[in-house]
Design brief:
Layout: H1 12-22, E1 27-30, H2 35-39, E2 50-54, E3 57-60, E4 71-73, E5 83-86, H3 87-94, H4 105-112, H5 118-127, E6 132-136, E7 146-149, H6 152-160, E8 166-168
């Protein structure tokens, strides 16, 4: 099923390349449980005050425009059809617009590491936080083991529609 791109225009070509490789439109999940792993999701960006910095000035985020991101977490892989990728080498694809996303077989092997087992990927993620992504075709949000939100209002809203295990948790915008 062809999915319409609804993200940052800059990444559209990379997502389409990955869709061609995997046979499904990609949904990216961070693998791991550290704060560094959570940062791969962008969850912490909803507390940023400065959105854009250009010409030594920034546009402050107004309260009414603040993103309200919800983080769904799973103890085990949420989708058996998922494919692991190496986050550092995924940047090869992100930066390949200039050559029309012509990725060599060697570069693909760095990204997908097809000889690695699930336990190899999980061990790598544990030893190297912020390094592994799982790409899935779909995600069952009702199967999440933990749901993290930015405020009590969002928590009440999610609990009101039947979600459990919702906690309010913030992250610093800049790690120390």
């Amino acid at each position: 099923m062809q999915q319409e791109f609804d993200g940052d225009y800059y990444f559209e070509g990379a997502y389409k390349w990955l869709e061609q490789q995997l046979g499904f439109y990609p949904m990216f999940l961070a693998v791991g449980s550290t704060e560094d792993d959570i940062r791969m999701t962008g969850y912490q960006n909803q507390w940023r005050r400065l959105l854009v910095e250009a010409d030594n000035r920034g546009d402050d985020q107004h309260k009414k425009n603040i993103e309200n991101i919800v983080l769904f977490s799973y103890r085990d892989l949420p989708n058996p059809d998922g494919v692991f990728t190496d986050y550092q080498y995924w940047h090869i694809v992100l930066n390949s617009q200039h050559n029309n996303y012509r990725i060599t077989e060697r570069e693909k092997s760095w990204i997908f590491k097809s000889s690695w087992s699930k336990s190899d990927w999980l061990r790598h993620a544990k030893r190297n936080p912020h390094s592994v992504q799982l790409v899935v075709p779909f995600l069952d949000l009702t199967a999440a083991d933990q749901i993290t939100v930015r405020n009590k209002g969002t928590k009440r809203c999610l609990e009101g529609i039947g979600f459990g295990n919702v906690e309010v948790r913030g992250l610093r915008t800049h790690p120390q």
